[in-house]
Specification:
By secondary structure, the chain is an alpha+beta fold. It contains 5 helices and 7 strands. InterPro entries: UCP032025.
Length: 164
């Protein structure tokens, strides 16, 4: 391999972090006890939509429209807080404002259905969503970094004890 090819090859760190300087959203994942719960719920919703002949888009509806939508769509993700920890993310594909059947303005966050685990980080509860700067976003978990053989609750306890 020549020097030019080596220089073009990204380092592992480049592949394990969302785009630097990007903007993301942080949101509580209500109703899911684990990343597995979230991925199962997404799969069920996509299967339901396919059975009804609807497009295979996966979306999360929220009340507030992000004012910085252009920045979010330039490579941003929605980071999910599950049981007090940021555990995963989904890439934002589109942000669509709409008015629901009751005349209330809402926002559809169209997400890539792929859930990417991130290095777990504690997060306090909050309402709605928060902006998350790219430099403050947790790194993507490297392949095999999370010990998937251990239940997520046990991993959470081990992290709290400083053992993971």
């Amino acid at each position: 391999m020549n020097a030019r090819a080596k220089a073009a090859k990204p380092s592992p760190r480049d592949l394990s972090v969302p785009p630097a300087g990007g903007l993301h959203l942080l949101k509580l994942c209500v109703g899911a006890d684990s990343v597995e719960d979230l991925t199962a719920w997404i799969a069920a919703r996509l299967a339901e939509r396919a059975a009804r002949g609807l497009p295979g888009d996966h979306a999360h509806v929220t009340r507030m429209m992000p004012t910085r939508a252009t920045e979010l769509l330039a490579g941003g993700s929605l980071y999910w807080v599950i049981k007090g920890e940021v555990l995963c993310r989904q890439r934002l594909r589109a942000i669509e404002p709409f008015v629901d059947g009751e005349g209330i303005g809402r926002c559809r966050l169209v997400l890539d259905p792929t859930v990417v685990r991130v290095v777990a980080r504690p997060s306090r509860p909050f309402q709605g969503w928060r902006y998350l700067k790219g430099a403050e976003a947790p790194f993507d978990a490297a392949e095999g970094q999370a010990d998937d053989r251990l239940p997520e609750a046990m991993q959470r306890e081990l992290r709290a004890l400083g053992l993971l």
